[in-house]
Design a protein that fits this description.
alpha/beta, two-stranded antiparallel ribbon, 211 residues, 7 helices, 5-stranded parallel β-sheet
Length: 211
């Protein structure tokens, strides 16, 4: 693109892949997030992919991190700045992303504790959301689409026992990410959508072919 005689290259596409399964070699959610990421990179060959494996550990919120997050940056003492360093890094990754791919196995009816810890780290008042008299406003406006791979053995997507999908949709919407698309890999013990070939076709169909 040329503006006033100067050539401006469009900003590169960034894909943030967040995996949370405690399993690796035999993880369906990881295989499908990989498939989704591959589909997105085929659509955007120059895209940059950031892999964030929260199963490796994400700090839980503490009194120090909570106090630091509500302290203006210029007033934070070194201990508070250090306490927020992980959150700052995760927030920067999220704010820079054009596409978000999340692998979310259902553990005991909800998301893994490490994924909840990740969500807690990126929910920052005044940074990723804000409040006004009209209500909350999400500030994560760059993400075009969030793809969520939801897997489980017994719990089915949308059932009374599924406390994961509605939570994820509400949380992402709270941050300003409104285009949330689920890959239903739930109810594996009952057949359901558990055939990997069907899931692979679903994944491929979610990502539109580039014009």
């Amino acid at each position: 693109m040329s503006v006033n005689g100067f050539h401006h290259d469009p900003a590169p596409i960034r894909i943030l892949r967040v995996d949370s399964s405690g399993r690796y070699g035999d993880s369906l959610s990881r295989r499908l997030t990989g498939r989704l990421t591959d589909a997105l990179t085929r659509q955007h060959p120059d895209a940059t992919v950031v892999d964030r494996d929260v199963a490796q550990g994400v700090p839980f919120l503490t009194e120090t991190t909570i106090a630091a997050s509500f302290t203006p940056p210029a007033d934070r003492h070194p201990g508070q700045a250090q306490a927020l360093s992980t959150s700052d890094h995760l927030v920067a990754e999220l704010l820079a992303a054009d596409y978000l791919v999340i692998g979310a196995p259902i553990y005991n009816f909800s998301v893994p504790a490490t994924l909840k810890a990740y969500f807690d780290q990126v929910a920052r008042a005044g940074v990723t959301f804000s409040y006004s008299p009209e209500g909350p406003t999400g500030l994560v406006t760059r993400v075009r689409t969030a793809y969520v791979v939801l897997t489980s053995n017994g719990v089915r997507l949308g059932s009374e026992a599924d406390h994961a999908s509605a939570f994820i949709r509400q949380f992402l919407g709270f941050l300003g990410i409104t285009d949330v698309r689920f890959v239903d890999g739930t109810g594996l013990l009952f057949g359901g959508h558990g055939h990997e070939e069907q899931l692979t076709a679903t994944v491929d169909g979610l990502v539109p072919v580039a014009a």
